[in-house]
Amino acid sequence: MSSPRFLVTGGGGFIGSHIAEALLARGEKVRVLDDFSTGRRQNLRRLDVELIEGSVTDELALARAMKGVEVVFHEAALPSVPRSIERPLDSDSVNVHGTLMVLEAARAAGVRRLMFAGSSSAYGNTQVSPKHEALPTVPLSPYAVAKVASEHYVRIYAELHGLETLTLRYFNVFGPRQDPNGAYAAVIPRWIEAALTGRPLTIHGDGLQTRDFGYVANVVHANLLAATTPRKLSGEIVNVSCGESVSLLELADAIAEEAGGNVERVHGPARAGDVRDSLADIRRAHELLGYEPQVHWREGLRRALEALRAELRP
Asked: How far apart (Å, rounded) are the C-alpha atoms in residues 150 and 169?
């Protein structure tokens, strides 16, 4: 039996499982590497993938995972800015050292191409808007520092070893399978669950901070374009999102409207390490990959809300 051509690290996670599902829908064989420290087994329960359970910091697991693989989607990470502030050594171990181990294992196995899940947090509070890839990086948290350091590793493996690589800087990705629970949950699933269960939405700060919310299908689309483009990839960086600025107050209004009722809001203190405003310039992704957003953020919000509503039904 032939080996899968595609490996998704962190394939049990939110974004990774969607990439795996999209590859399977195209008739591809897919291998997943995940230790389920943040990913969820239920994300893979309907997906016919080859699963290798292990960490990106495990050399033997990585060697098994890379065998026979042509293209790698490196989605494994320890997410969350607040988590990285509380546990910076863990963030560094998984997000920097783990990425370097993935790159080295890919090089040793003769992998042709690797896509890296970068982050818009690399830009920090740079005043230019929208954020374009030529801007300097000014990370504000250990998580952001780790993503920037990994971008450099991804680039030099293209330059030094001929491994085709690309960093896709994600901007506030959301959608089905995103965990709404826990201290490190992202704002959209957390607020959707609160709205559906009659609890108030907690807004950190004044709520006028802005984000470029990208539905997960757009991220999957960009990754598949990167995996299949005939162009040689050489460590480039591209932004991936919708290219539309939405304040947290506007987001709260939209969630309340989609949930079909009045939703209470309470304000708490601003969070350390949070970026004030974030908007993506996506022209470079279009030029390099032909990328265009497939799902508007408001339509994505409807889909995410309905998916979580279905999960909450008894």
From this structure: 12
Q: Answer for the pair 121, 140: CB distance below 8 angstroms, yes or no.
A: yes
Directed axis angle between helix 297-312 and helix 216-228, to 10°? 110
Q: Which residues pair with 238 in a beta bridge?
A: 168
Note whether residue 178 is domain-resident: no
For the four alpha carbons of 149, 55, 73 and 307, in that order, the dihedral sign comes to negative
Q: How far is CA 284 from the centre of its chain?
A: 18
Identify the CA nearest to 118 among candidates 20, 186, 219. Answer: 219
> For residue 2, what pLDDT is reported?
72
Question: What is the CATH classification number for the domain harbouring 23?
Answer: 3.40.50.720
Strand stretches in the chain, DSSP E:
6-9, 30-34, 50-53, 71-74, 113-119, 164-170, 173-174, 201-204, 210-211, 214-215, 236-240, 246-247, 265-268
Residue 255 lies in a domain: no
Question: SS3 for 100?
Answer: helix
pTM: 0.95
pLDDT, tens only, 269-278? 998 878 899 9
Classify strands 210-211 and 246-247 as parallel, antiparallel or unpaired: antiparallel
56-108 pLDDT tens trace? 999 999 999 999 999 999 999 999 889 999 999 999 999 999 999 999 999 99
Residue 87: domain span? 6-171+216-240+281-294
227 part of a folded domain:
yes
Average pLDDT over the chain, rounded to whole? Answer: 95
How far apart are the C-alpha atoms of 144 and 181, rounded to whole Å?
22
Number of folded domains that form the chain: 1
Does residue 268 sit within a domain?
A: no
Rounded Cα gap, residues 189 and 259, in angstroms: 13
